[in-house]
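quick one, 126 residues, struct below
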Amino acid sequence: MNFPSQLRYTKDHEWVLLEGNTAKVGITEFAQRELGDIVFVDITTTGKTLNAEEIFGTVEAVKTVSDLFLPVAGTVGAVNPRLENSPELVNTDPYGEGWMVTIEVSNAADVDGLLTADAYKALIGE
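---
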């Protein structure tokens, strides 16, 4: 499995790419494999300010629905518009075209407290 080193990870299997005070968020390759084929992504928190670990949406796979947790506190910005018609992008390109939301991060230093790629690999037993 692939775990890009420039990303930070959560124990709930989300990833974060920080660019200035804006972060892109998605789910990891491990998470999408565990869920199976993604058929729907439901995110209705655009414009809302949430704390770290609050639910910002759900992802529906053929066999289950799973909550999505915000990795760090911030305001939910854009939702990936491509996921509405192509939710399978989460499966085929979880770190690229399958990103889910951008957030304006309340405190960029909080991202440093998330797991590195090596720590995340250890968490999932890779």
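The mean pLDDT is 95.
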